[in-house]
Amino acid sequence: MNINVNKIYKxxxxxxxxxxxxxxxxxxNNKNNAILYIYRxxxxxxxxxxxxxxxxxxxxxxxxxxxxxxxIGDVIKIx
Length: 79
Prior knowledge:
With 79 residues, the chain is mainly β. The chain has strands at residues 2-3, 7-10, 14-16, 25-30, 35-39, 47-49, 57-62, 77-78. 0% of the residues lie in helices and 39% in strands.
């Protein structure tokens, strides 16, 4: 599945929504671009920490309503 991404944070396993727009969705994927976690409509000041190794995970910020059809385990192609 092809998706447009607002911002990509490579080799990270944590994220703070303090500077994030509340309309963005957050997806955490592994080195094979398979989705590990999906966070929708997170409030401001939320901190996310992933257990996986930070060299194998990336954090993607997606525009609102672009992750509707995505589910954990899907492999995505990033534009």
